[in-house]
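User: Can you write out an input/output pair for a complex, sequences first and structure second?

Assistant: Here is one pair. Inputs:
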Amino acid sequence: QVQLQESGPGLVKPSETLSLTCAVSGYSISSGYYWGWIRQPPGKGLEWIGSIYHSGSTYYNPSLKSRVTISVDTSKNQFSLKLSSVTAADTAVYYCARENYGDYGWFDPWGQGTLVTVSS
Amino acid sequence: DIQMTQSPSSLSASVGDRVTITCRASQGISNYLAWYQQKPGKVPKLLIYAASTLQSGVPSRFSGSGSGTDFTLTISSLQPEDVATYYCQKYNSAPLFGGGTKVEIK
């Protein structure tokens, strides 16, 4: 059974960089699939941030592309998100998930999510 | 850019009612559409992919249809445990979610 778990600071100061890691268990990232990050501001809808393949190939939401970096560490079976120059608008629950199908796909399973608050 | 529009944004129905949620893409996306259910305070759960394929373990009262630009999620007989917000997501290219439809019990 594939499981994902997000980790990282719950509080980030404005203008700083948000860093999160998603640890994957029950499946080797090196075996395939894209792996993605999705966020949800409090009381709002879902927004895809970006995705990465085990090879390191990435694609990002154009609206966030200038601030986002997603990387993968196959030796630790995890992938990471960095979002720079954060503002209060980046306050959200951040989820990691496996992206199924081909170059693009649906998301399943999901991690439990982690709330990141941007505040001084 | 493709837009994904869900309607209605919210609805209230009685237990046992048939409920239909619509998702419209601004351009054709073939059948590259998924549906998710998110209960309050919980993680989104995949219900349907490829527009009409039910994910394993999902009750058969859920069904999906459509292709191209117009898609529907139907709950054939609404149950109390179906109270949730439902999202569509296209994946013919970069993923994009619809705005969500909140389903409540009347």
